[in-house]
Design a protein that fits this description.
It is built from 11 helices and 10 strands. With 345 residues, the protein is α/β, with parallel strands linked by helices. The strands form 3 sheets. The protein has a 6-stranded mixed beta sheet, sandwiched between helices. A two-stranded antiparallel ribbon has the order 6-9. The radius of gyration is 30 Å and the shape is elongated.
Length: 345
């Protein structure tokens, strides 16, 4: 687009000089119209570039917010704000962030052993609301013995997904919000160094990151969440703790779960982002605002964004062309009759 601007400006400049120097050209109305059209094209095109990502407030429309959300069984633990489950509080936070960034494009990417996009990118808040409110927690009978890597694989897949997004539009800001308790379950094949490696790899693809830790540091039991096929309803039994993977004795263990802040902080550092605990919603809001500003600034440094903002350099020449055209039009009106009269002679 900048090449087109350069060509149009150059042609307009040459024709304006010709119009100002060669008086006889002035009598050809079609020539004057061509020059006028080119000049105003320069102005309109330059102005259109200025409006793209003009400031941080306007940049929300150019922002992609991807929620990397933990749907694993430990998120059923009832140790978050107001005695709610980690999953319930995470849902509240997703909706709050979405509402505070109205006009952005949202997507939800679940933390899973085989992750894929849970909600494709959308600018419609009601779509986000429906997707979040219909998240179903994992049940007891499908969660026993889950030992495969989850967060590291999810971050790797997310990098691939963002690469695909950037094929369509490289100029958009990308803000990633990771939401989990960051606990590596006992006996899991997940490795902390693999998570950090995946987070570091993701850093170069995004503009900002917020890592939110759910739950508390003190271990708690998880309730048993199941589906009652008789009533076709979800059941939450707080008195019967979740039975985890089978132990050496052949009996199911009753594991406790706690937030791993150390792991969360390492992930945030590797992604170049901010870690916040879920206890204080104002801290989450502030972290998102801070990282959104950082995403905006990082986006300005991208090659695609530099091309867009170079349009500012064409605004002044375009404005000068318009003034010049007006001066030439007014000034030459006094000599047109003389030119025509001279031609008759």
């Amino acid at each position: 687009m900048n090449v087109i601007l350069l060509v149009v400006n150059s042609v307009a400049l040459v024709l304006l000089i010709a119009l100002g120097v060669y008086k006889k050209l002035y009598v050809y109305n079609y020539f004057r119209r061509i020059v006028a059209v080119l000049v105003f094209m320069c102005l309109v095109m330059a102005l259109s570039f200025v409006t793209i990502g003009a400031d941080e407030e306007q940049s929300v429309a150019n922002r992609d917010i991807i929620f990397v959300s933990d749907f694993t069984y430990s998120m059923n633990a009832l140790d978050d704000r107001g005695g709610k489950s980690r999953l319930d509080v995470m849902q509240e936070d997703i909706l709050a962030i979405g509402k505070n960034n109205a006009g952005a494009r949202y997507g939800i990417f679940p933390i899973d052993i085989n992750p894929s996009i849970y909600m494709p990118m959308t600018t419609t808040y009601s779509d986000l609301e429906i997707a979040v409110k219909t998240i179903t927690p994992p049940y007891d009978y499908v969660s026993r013995g889950t030992v495969w890597p989850q967060l590291s694989v999810t971050l790797q897949r997310l990098s691939e997904y963002i690469d695909k997004l950037k094929k369509y539009d490289k100029s958009r800001e990308v803000l990633v919000v990771v939401m989990s308790d960051y606990e590596i379950a006992k006996g899991s094949d997940e490795k902390s160094d693999k998570i950090i490696e995946a987070a570091s790899d993701l850093k170069g693809r995004i503009g900002g990151a917020v890592v939110v830790g759910y739950g508390r540091d003190n271990p708690v039991n998880m309730p048993t969440v199941d589906w009652d096929w008789g009533t076709n309803k979800q059941t939450v039994d707080k008195s019967r703790p979740f039975a985890g993977p089978m132990g050496k004795s052949g009996d199911y263990e009753e594991p406790k779960t706690a937030r791993d802040e150390s792991n969360a902080r390492k992930i945030a550092e590797s992604m170049g982002g901010i870690y916040v605990a879920s206890e204080n919603t104002s801290n989450i809001d502030e972290a998102v605002r801070t990282e959104a500003k950082q995403a905006y600034k990082n986006n300005l440094k991208s090659d695609q964004s530099k091309k867009v903002h170079q349009g500012m350099f064409y605004l002044l020449p375009a404005a000068v062309f318009v003034v010049w055209l007006c001066v030439v039009e007014v000034g030459k009106n006094y000599s047109v009759l003389a030119i025509k009269w001279g031609n008759k002679k």
